[in-house]
User: Fold this.
Amino acid sequence: MKPKQNFWIPTVLPVLLGLISCTTFTKEHPARQSKLVPAGFAMAQVPTWSRADLDFFLHGSMSTEVVPETVLRAFMRAYPDLFPSTDLSHLGAIPDNQFGWPVGFSRKRVPHLGGLSAVGVNCAVCHVGEVIPAAGGAPMRVLGVTSHFDAEAFFGSVILSTFRTADPGNMKKFLAACLAVNDPQSGDKGQALFVKEWQQQEQQIIAAISADPTGSKDLRPGALLHQISGDELRINYKLLSTGMDLSGLAHSTLKLFHNMRAALHIPDQPPPPAPPNGPGRNDPWRILSYSLLGVVTEPAPVKFGIVWNEDQRTWVHFDSNTRSPIIRNLAASLGLGAPLIEHHGVLDFANLQRHTALSEVIRPPRYPWTIDRAAAERGAKTYGARCASCHEGPQTDRRLHLLTEIQSDPNRARIFTPAVAEGFNQFFAQLQIAGYQPPQPPPLRSTQKYWSPGLAGVWARSPYLHNGSVRTMQELLTPPVGRAKTFHRGSRVFDAAQMGYSDEGAYVLDTTGPGNSNLGHDYGTDISADQKRELIEYLKTL
Assistant:
C-alpha cells in the first residue's frame, strides 16, 4: 500500500484558531510552581540501566528532529503568544538546564533542515513525569509514566509559526529575531542595520514571498524535500554589512518551513482545526490511520500509555493491537518528524532499537509516601474479591474485554478495525529502512476490545481509563453518573487520599466531547466509603 502524500494531522494543529494561548498556561499555585526544580530519578525502576542509558532515554535521538534550534529560538522571540516560556514549561515540559532543552528533547544535525542542529522529541517527552506531594516537597520523577507534556500544542505552535512567517511583516520580525539569536553581539547596531537593509529591499522581499508563500515551488520531480544548505539560512552582522540578499534569505526560509511541514506530513495549506486533547493525551491511531493509510476515523483520544513491565506482555496498547515493540516506536518516529519518502523512512534504526530495548525493561515506581498498612491489609481482601479476577493472572487474551462489558468510551477500540490493521501490516511489510526487517508474523491486529492491565504502579497512573477521563481513583470508584463532567489537566500535585492529580491547570477536559466519555468501568463503585479508602491504600502497595 502506497503511503499517502500531502496528508494532514488533524490533532497536531488545534492552535490554528488561537487555542494555544488559552489552553497551555500552567496555573498551579505559585508556591507549588517554585518547587518544580530538577529532581533525581528512582533508578530502582531501571536496575539494568547505566547512567549513559538514562541520558540516552532522556535525550537520545529517534530521528524526529524537526525544527532547527536557531529557528525555534527565533520563533520564541517573534511569537511570545505561542511560546510564553523559553524552557517550554508552559507546555508541561520538564526543563533540563544542563542539556538546554526539556526532558524528552533530542538534538541532531539534519540534512533536509540545512544541516543545522535541530531538536525533536523522543519517548521520554511523553513517558517521564513529575509528581509533587500536596503538602509540598521535592518532586519525584517517574520513568514510564504518562507525562504532563502537551505535545499537540508544541507541534501546533511550531507549525503555526511557519504559516505566520509567510506574511511579510512577520517575516521581518522573524529574521530580526534570527539575527538576535545567531549574532547576539551585534545588539542594537545589528538590528538597526537589518531594518535599513529591509527597507531598501522590501519590494523584492515581498515579491519573493508572494511568488512562493509555501516554499513548495521548484522541488525536484518526485521529491518531497528541498535540498537546502546552511549558508542559505545564515544571517549575521557581517553579511548584512556587505548588502546580503534578504529576499533570497526569505525564500530559503520558506523552503525550510516546507521541509519541516513535509517531515510532519502536514500540507502547505493550513488544515481545519480540531479540538485539542490537552496535556498527556493525543489521538495517535487516528493520526496514523489518516497519514499513512488515508483512512478517516472518528476522534479517539487516549492518554500517553504507561511504559513499564512491557517485556511481560505479548501485545501492547489499550486494545492489545501491537505485538512488536519496534513497530510501536517506528510508528511514533514516522509520525513525529522522521521523513517518509514513498516507502523509505529516513531514520537511524539502531537508535530506535536502543530506545525500544530501554523502554522494555522499565519497572513500576514504588509509592514514595506513607501508607496506612492496617487499612491496606483490609483493602487487600476487597481487591482479591472485586479486582483480581480481571487485573491478575497470566497476561493472555483472557484480559481482553468486550466494549459492552467495560462500557467505557468505545472509540479507541472501535476505530482499529480489521481493515485498518491489515493496512498497517501491509505498510510495515513494505517499509524500507537500513537495518529494518519486516516482522513476522504480522505485527498488528484488531481486537475491538479493551485490555485489563496489571495494577503495579497504579498510584502513578492518574488520570484513569484509557482516555484519561477520570481524574482520581476515588472518582473511578464512584458510580459513573456521579463522576465530574469536567476537570483541569496539567497539575503535578498529587492528592494521596483520592490517589490522583489535583484539579488544577489551564486545560479543561470535557468528558462530554467525542472520545472523552468517563462512563463505564463501574466495578467497585458499590462498596462502602471505608472499603474504598482501604482499597486505595492497598493499591498504593502494588
